[in-house]
């Protein structure tokens, strides 16, 4: 059984969500929660981006002891110096340095030839290694890069001292088969690849960030980069909670585990949503309000008989107290009876039949039935507890 390292980037890539701006206190609060969750690495920010971000990364690095803290830098000495200033007091200073490797980015953004990009990447890693014991290198837009070039630059940066190689799907362009193939290719064609840990970093533009990350695990990645609630640039990053729970629930398939304390997931999700102001959609896997809610009669009946009929994840696993049987027009009599019992009412079967008929008439007109609606029905029918 392999252990997959979880690299959380909620405080860096997550903070790049349009409209999100976390101050130092908010970053510290989230960082402490991520530490309790058990992330192996947290990327606390981009120190060269602003003085505020440098100070926040510095504060987080001085407080967090049980997760490694890192910061992002472009491939230039000034960014690396800013990151060192922010991280030098952390338990294990670790840098995340990147450069783009796709023809589109090299031509239009960097205005460099591939050889110049290799040189800049190697120089940046060598310079970083003079200060940082651990250097992670990322090939921005790796999935639109030429594979032969990618293998060449990866070999060179490993020689220069990078010990973690990250393969970002920066624009969420790839799919699981293609992404897995990149990992297989690098493992086969980079002679010194065994000196490095391979890492996945996926964006969700086509809704495949989690599937792509899991494919990377199947194909040799030992680190996954992700964010709480999947927040991040544009459509966001791969969701930490979905990856963690998928690995745990399908341990039989992935043969991999993480160091995360899954029970902390729900509270962490709520904190990130509150402090970033980004609401979690109700149908979001694992952390959405409806993730453990059953509405239809057939499902409610099944769950009341045996939870595993319609629940592959127990709510308790991720720190949610219990599942919910939501009453609506699809609900069945079994769930209705159960709901009344929970409110302290156990009318005889003939009364339940009449009540249930009225309940269905009302449910047809309303989107969601509330506890007040049920009490009103009970009062109308003069049912006592
Ligand atoms: O998506 C991306 O390419 C990134 C890099 C900076 C790692 O976030
Ligand atoms: Zn990213």
TrEMBL record:
The reactions it catalyses are: 3-methyl-2-oxobutanoate + acetyl-CoA + H2O = (2S)-2-isopropylmalate + CoA + H(+)
The highest taxon in the source lineage is Bacteria
Q: Which residues form the Pyruvate carboxyltransferase domain?
A: 4-266
List positions binding Mn(2+): 13, 201, 203, 237
**Stated family:** Belongs to the alpha-IPM synthase/homocitrate synthase family. LeuA type 1 subfamily.
Function summary: Catalyzes the condensation of the acetyl group of acetyl-CoA with 3-methyl-2-oxobutanoate (2-ketoisovalerate) to form 3-carboxy-3-hydroxy-4-methylpentanoate (2-isopropylmalate).
Q: How does it assemble?
A: Homodimer.
- Protein's name in the database: 2-isopropylmalate synthase
Q: Which organism is it from?
A: Fictibacillus arsenicus
What's the name of its gene? leuA
